[in-house]
């Protein structure tokens, strides 16, 4: 493996004399317990929604959707995978490069890891870097994934703000929901503005905050190495901005295409299971809520139960009916199961193991 040094004029990615410990075993165990509790709750929710809507209604809707419809949404989701893979490809520092043949299978592996286990979100990024470790040093893979995730977070925040704004302005909601959504929009706008200023002005706000907390004796165990990792991460992002400013817009557009394909997927499913021509607005709202649920309940494998709850809430609000919302979530869950199976096949074929990925995650790949 090459020594972790990318280019002489950019931030160093070599081991800066630290040995990151990752998340402690105590925190991991707490997350495991939380993941199990949320999963059990999700199963209960899923059973409730299937029972309340009726198994026959759901089966009839699934039958109307058909195998051809399922094949089409599998293709749409593959296109979404390609969007994330293309954005990642553009996030790699020179002289290293990754091609779509490298990033597409790696993204599928990461999605499989993220979907099927309660703590998948903790290893999905590392698993992608491990999948391309024969092409680029592990630390380069990790830093490029972190860069792509930042772009994804930015576009997702914009997408969620638009969805929340449209939802609260287009339908009659209880005053409590209106206030909550408006607060959410305001917070997202503030975070986005702060994030953009940090990148453009190259403020080391996060690492300085961590260092200040460490000096005050707050969370010293976590920040002992964590504050240095945050500083290194900031240097990666700021170095990317200085070296490749022209890549920012293409990457953002690619990430936006990922969300647009999600709306298209929902619209296509609705067009096959509802009696009237669906509105694109409904598809947009259903996808934005689904994306929010994906972020909040990432510890729940396959988003079982919670995805159905969100889809039912939006479907009833836009007058589609609870049955349509639950069916939509179940059909999309079938698509996730298919691509998770493909990811497992790739993992087995490449001889990857969860133990190896977890070990590399704990050490941050800094070797």
Structure explained in plain terms:
It is a single chain. The protein is an all-alpha fold and 367 residues long. It has one domain. 77% of the residues lie in helices and 0% in strands. It has 13 helices and no strands. The radius of gyration is 21 Å and the shape is globular.
Mind sketching the topology for me?
Blueprint: H1 25-53, H2 55-89, H3 100-116, H4 120-131, H5 138-170, H6 175-201, H7 205-215, H8 220-243, H9 248-273, H10 280-296, H11 306-317, H12 322-350, H13 354-362
Helix pairs in contact: 2-3, 2-5, 2-9, 2-12, 3-4, 3-12, 4-5, 4-13, 5-6, 5-9, 5-10, 7-8, 9-10, 10-11, 11-12
Give average pLDDT, whole number: 81
Low-confidence stretches: 1-23
Query: Radius of gyration, rounded?
Result: 21 Å
In percent, how much strand structure appears in the residues? under 5%
Order of helices and strands: HHHHHHHHHHHHH
Major sheet characteristics: none
Shape: globular
- Distance between the amino and carboxyl termini: 9 Å
Structural class: mainly alpha
Number of helical runs?
Answer: 13
Q: What percent of the residues sit in helical stretches (DSSP H or I)?
A: over 70%
Number of strands: 0
Q: How many structural domains does the protein architecture include?
A: 1
